[in-house]
Amino acid sequence: MNIFFERKFVIQAIVAFVAFVLLAKLFYIQIIDESYYLSANNNVLRKLIIYPARGVISDRNGVILVQNEPVYDLMVIPRQVKDFDTLEFCRLIGITKIDFITKFEKARKYSKYKASVFEKQLSSRTYAGFQEKLFEYQGFYVQNRSVRKYPNQSAPHILGYIGEVNDRMIAKSGNYYQQGDYIGISGIEQSYETELRGQRGIKNIMVDVFNREKGRFEDGRFDTTAVSGERLMSSLDAELQAYGERLMQNKKGSIVAIEPSTGEILAFISSPTYDPNLLVGRARSKNYRKLLLDENIPLFIRPTMAQYPPGSIFKIINVLLEQKYHIITRESTYGCGGAYFLGGLRVGCRSHPSPVNLPMSLQWSCNSYNCNYFNALIQSNQFKNSEEGFNAWRSGVNNFGVGKKLQIDLPNELKGLLPTAEQYNKIYGKGSWKGSTIISLSIGQGELGITPLQMANLAAIVANRGFYYNPHLIKAIGQKKIVKPEYTKKNYVGIDAAYFDPVIEGMEAVVQGGTAGRSKIKNIIMCGKTGTVQVTNGEDHSVFIAFAPKDNPKIAIAVVIENAQGGGGSTWAAPLTSLLVEKYLTDSITKPKAFEDRILNARFINDTVSKIK
Amino acid sequence: MNKKSILFNVDLLTLGIYIALILIGWFSIYAAVYDTDHSSIFDLDRNYGKQLIWIFTALFLAMLILILDYKFFSTFSYVFYGITLLLLVGVLFVGKLVGGNQAWFEIGSFRLQPSEFAKFATCMALAKYLSGTNIKMQQLSTKIASTSLLVIPFVLIMLQPDAGSASTFLAFVLVLYREGLSGVVLVIGFGVIIIFLLALMVKKLTLLIAFAIIAGLFIYFYKRSRQAVLIILSSLAFSVLVVFGVDYTIKNVLKPHQRDRINNLVGIDVDLKGAGYNVNQSMIAIGSGGFLGKGFLQGTQTKYDFVPEQSTDFIFCTIGEEYGFVGSLVVIGLFVTLLFRIIFIAERQRFTYSRIYAYGVFSILFFHITINLGMTIGLIPVIGIPLPFISYGGSSLWSFTILLFILLKLDANRMGLLR
Predict the structure, then answer these.
(1) Can you say how many angstroms the Cα of residue A554 is from the centroid of all Cα atoms in its chain?
(2) 0.90 cut: is pTM over it?
(3) Considering CB atoms only, which of A8, A16, A31 is closest to B290?
(4) B179: which chain A residues are within 8 Å (Cβ-Cβ)?
(5) Which of A89, A613, B81, B377 has the smallest set of CB atoms within 10 Å of its CB?
(6) Is A40 on the interface with B (CB under 8 A)?
């Protein structure tokens, strides 16, 4: 043993010390500090969102109105991007180098660590070419999703469209949606978003350092499957809808057709219309701008948002209310000398047989009859004063769904305009107005505004003799064919069924030999009422409401054609209606071709093509 | 003496730990580069299959060493040393450039790293020199000569340039210390490292004021001894010199990647994508192992290639991740047991040559283990040297095996004739 033997203890102490330090550090990072465990998961775990197929929408006969088409979103995680051949990349997906730089900057700004959409909706073909090279572009991957496709190119106003969520929508949904998700923006897509979107699934996968998929995390223990959106069956009749759209070509206006026994909407046309496929895919914003700037406002949903003075069709409501308050019976007559006079007031009328009873007043749309008895109702001694009379009338009208929303399953429905007593008090002063002051209400002019949907609903109320179902566009949700409860409830308008008989008799006469005599349909008794709405600027609006057949009605319809040249309801709206009704009830047209062509060729719209570029 | 008795005399504890470590290494390499396409652990296209060849050849070398006469090694120490130096010079001219280092000979598909063999050759030469008659560590000539034995291979390896392998020669300071070099050398060495790191982490002025205060306190307590005051003052002067030397070293001596590694360690300028990536990923892998680990082949970080160099320098990540703290404890326990056993063996030698050689083996292993483990858990800057017996690689496994088995051979014959 040599003299430095003791030094082995120093050396042993050094070894022990080093071992202790190493173990202490290991103990710290392996057991105490959790962050390494989390970082490890960050390294390998990727949550893939499995987007369920959005629900398909069909018409009442199962014809597909909206379906899905696959597209591929190119995603990027900026942090993981390594150097690569940018030029080839740009060529493959068809963008310029400058596009690339802007898009990449945008993604980096959003997050370096989180995935964001780099290029939206690559077509199947672009994707096929790109996919083979994908492995060269670290940090990029492709996410499948589908876009909406409208095989019928019809009914854009009802179906609506989907678009990317914005920050406000994300916040409102309680962060259900994420940046880049799609959501229904209008129409059924919006109002049935919850049913259509289905349930997202999550797949936890592991990736290696090159971001290559390496299998599922813990055999998919934390995965959830995606549940497809519900299939919706619309009440629309695709054929009727398409025919209506064709008849309305080059015209502004609306058609709403309702099945009176259910409240199901059979056709819902807002003209001018457009191909819903325009608002899908990469050209969407360009097309949207174009539509937005069109002076005929094709994006405007006229059936629920346009509020017209109803004109003569409003007389139906008035004569029903006058019967209810025992002002008139079927036999009450009035002698019309071509105009109505009261004090200094004169309301003109056309020349027609006189005197008229109730049915005849509708058949000839006699203004004098209606002015007279409307005034009698407001001034009736059943009421303390004119204001009380007006209020009784007003609530009666309100029961018909005028001045309130009909709760259709579309967003942004307007309730129409129904003046209140306060309004008149303000204009004329309390107690200083009476029936004659507001006489234009009797013939559907003045402060009134009702939507085409409310007009069609009025026709349905008459067809049902006193009640309606809230009109709706979706008749069955999902496999179980659920109908929303609010659409199975009868709304009574508070008028005895018997009072409808003379009204229906009059409406029958309108078509059989009255104002709409030319619109008679072979073998079908259609009951209708024409309306001509005077507007301050341009030609009158042509209005017609109807239901058919007279017994056991299958369809109630309202047609509004804006600024129709040379004629009121009888000239344009009524013949157009007769075509639609016959088509729906018999699936054929017996009218001569010239009759149909006259409607098809009518053009009441400014040519705006040169203006939209 | 027949072969049987030689095997019988081999230290069984050391042999057992050696076998355990190479098996742990083999399985860890398998787990580190595992993929389902090549699931056979005997697949010779993969690192784990090749490692099996290295293991068998290493065992063959071990047998060869045990069969040879024990005097062979001490007799030919200088010859081995000389050959190694020639190889180190040769590799600078005909070597293959791998990863920026001119460190490999390439013979067919096999590559040989002479710096690995320089370790045991230097060890033998040092033992031979210090065991000579009339050699005293206290003599200046001895200090110069023994230091020269270390410095020559150190410089040659630095020329490759492979600072990691070269630094292993620093370990021999422990041998010199055991043989009588003043402990002050160790203290000064340790002090320089501490001050160096402090100078990087703390502002210079703060550090100088702190030194002055500490020195002042010491002088106050030892004011009666003039010698003590002198020592304190000179230490202070030396410390100040080191503080100012740091800047110069960082800017002019270290290479950019070395600078990054040191900055990374002390927490300046941590770039997790660049210089800090390896260590960060290595710590994530080990840290995510938890107490019991994720299980064999279940380590996601190593299996999916997040850790670079995972079968060679960062092999410990696989152990840390798949076997957790318990596994790390076992491996470190095996290493510590081995090191203590080598000290024990060293001290029972009758021949000075054997004892010095044993301490050489100890120093080399200790240095490699400390640096490698410290590096993987972020305690020491990244220095690319393997973990003995565990890391993938033929040269290093051969070299450590030869190193260890020469010791076992010497030990087996320690009761040999007293001559």
Answers:
(1) 24
(2) no
(3) A31
(4) 4
(5) A613
(6) yes
